[in-house]
Amino acid sequence: EDVDLAALKIQTKPFHDSEEHQPLCYRCSTTSPLVNNVGNQCTNCGHPFVYSYVSFEILPLVEFILEDGISDEEAVRLILASSGNKEPAETEEKPEERDEGVEIENQWTASEVNEQTLEIGGNNSLTTDPFSSNYMNFYQGGSDFQPVILNRLALAVLEPHEVIICRWPKPLRYQFYKNLMADVPITHCEHCNKMFHTDDYILQVLQKGHCPFCRTPSGDVGEEEVDY
């Protein structure tokens, strides 16, 4: 009777996956159940998961689309021509030209009224990245996926090494992804447009001599973000 009663109690408890095994969405930083009704995408923001096609781990990539009127070729030129700098170097002041007690934008400054304090000066906040201000704009729990939309200014300040471009043939549009974790190297095969963890990709190429997904020979494989 004790065993039967314990079995009934176990069956009445709802099952929950361990949090460490649940897929993490890198856009909204929420976890989703392993099996859900919306498929391979976040149940909170609807962003599709981008998997590494070796280990099938979720990559820290967030897809963004272009504002109306921006062609794929123009977006590529803006991204590749960008150095990621948001302000020109000539606007920076030399250290010897700065006086104590003078307020400088985006710097820690000291001011004396009745007490000494440290404050962040300037009208602009420290987080002036247009992408960071756009990728959290979504309706939580909504059924429709709201992609990140970037204009020319936002494209011009992106770091080129953090952007992965999937160049699909016409009439398909290019797909653009931003790596939110720059210290995690990601490899992109230009033939099949699949992404991989760089370590997994290199190991597969050394063992088999070709891309682990499309089997393009290693001499013909074009890759991005590979750090040997």
Automatic annotation (TrEMBL):
The reply on keyword Repeat is yes
Q: Would the keyword Disulfide bond turn up in this protein's UniProt record?
A: no
**Signal sequence span per UniProt?**
none
Q: Which organism is it from?
A: Armadillidium nasatum
Which positions fall inside the IFT122 zinc ribbon domain?
18-62
Quote the InterPro entries the UniProt record gives.
Ift122/121, Zn_ribbon_IFT122
What the entry lists under Pfam families is as follows:
Zn_ribbon_IFT122, Zn_ribbon_IFT122_C
Tell me what this protein is called: Intraflagellar transport protein
Q: Which GO terms describe its biological process?
A: intraciliary retrograde transport; non-motile cilium assembly; protein localization to cilium
Q: Which UniProt keywords apply?
A: Cell projection, Cilium, Flagellum, Repeat, WD repeat
Which GO terms of the cellular component aspect does the record hold? intraciliary transport particle A; non-motile cilium
Classification via PANTHER family? INTRAFLAGELLAR TRANSPORT PROTEIN 122 HOMOLOG, WD REPEAT DOMAIN-RELATED
